[in-house]
Amino acid sequence: MERIGFIGLGSQGAPMARRIVEEGYPLTLWARRSASTEPYGDTAAVVAATPAELASRSDIVCLCVVADADVEDVLLREDGVFAGLASGGVVVLHSTIHPDTCRRVAEEAAARGISVVDAPVSGGGQAAAERRLLVMAGGAKEDVERCRPVFETFADPVIHLGPLGSGQAAKALNNFVFTVQVGLALDTFALADGLGMDRAAVAQVLANGTGGTRAAGILAASGFNTAGLRQARSLLRKDVDILLDLARAGGPDADPAGLAELAERTLAALENPDPA
């Protein structure tokens, strides 16, 4: 079996890594904080002292860190992944980052004979634990297919969208649309209040009617508490900015002006204690 390295054991990455090792893959972990690797003491996973050591023990290295700068640091630092990964290895970028960062990293990787796949995910930690995470993959077909069995330990479906960066573009689009739908849901329930309707009953109508959205369902399931959405605001902000940057680069045919206005209004509303 391919030897797997995994870096980024947060709320999303941790259940992904656990599914990989529970499926029998040789797994090596690295984290800045030892507390992040302690929960794997009941598995066969090995903990490395540095990203380079992890890479030297791996054929495929998966990153699920937060930001573009984190990805570049873990890969390019003196004791980083590129210092230890042998030619022929693959780096998988599960982090949600700009497609340009993927391409910049891939140039550095290519000089070392290393391939890069971008494979951001959607669905949350529980979906990973239940093997139903969505993986949006970009990269050479042979590299994506090589990684697919690993992805399938925690994901269904795994969708190959095209060349490197395509997965990131799809993730940004997905989260942009979700942000817009959150704004629409907030407006919808506010309208229901104004009409004297019971918002819980309206939520049931939307859940069973053609007007429902995932965002409206999430908001209703929380009891119309926006705390979770407010906590996710910075991540939604990042993804909206990526999508708008890609749209600007795409020219006038990719102009999402109307939706962008609603997305911006949604993000502003989520700064308030209870915009719903």
Can you summarize this structure?
By secondary structure, the protein is α/β, with parallel strands linked by helices. The protein has helices spanning 13-22, 34-37, 51-56, 68-76, 81-84, 99-110, 125-129, 141-151, 166-194, 199-208, 214-221, 227-231, 233-250, 257-269; strands spanning 4-7, 27-30, 46-47, 60-63, 90-93, 115-118, 121-122, 133-138, 155-162.
Q: Give the N-terminus to C-terminus distance in angstroms.
A: 49 Å
Mass-distribution shape: globular
Rg of Cα set: 20 Å
Based on the structure given, which CATH architecture of the largest domain is correct?
Answer: 3-Layer(aba) Sandwich
Show unreliable segments: none
Kindly report the spatial arrangement of strands forming the biggest sheet: 3-2-1-4-5-6
Q: List the secondary-structure elements in sequence, H or E.
A: EHEHEHEHHEHEEHEHEHHHHHH
Give the number of domains.
2
The largest β sheet comes out as: 6 strands, parallel
Write down how many β-strands occur, each being a DSSP E stretch of 2 or more residues. 9
Q: What do we call the CATH topology of the largest domain?
A: Rossmann fold
CATH homologous superfamily descriptor of the largest domain: NAD(P)-binding Rossmann-like Domain
Report helical residue fraction: 40-55%
Strand content: 5-15%
* Protein structure class: alpha/beta
Query: What is the CATH domain class of the largest domain?
Result: Alpha Beta
Number of helices: 14
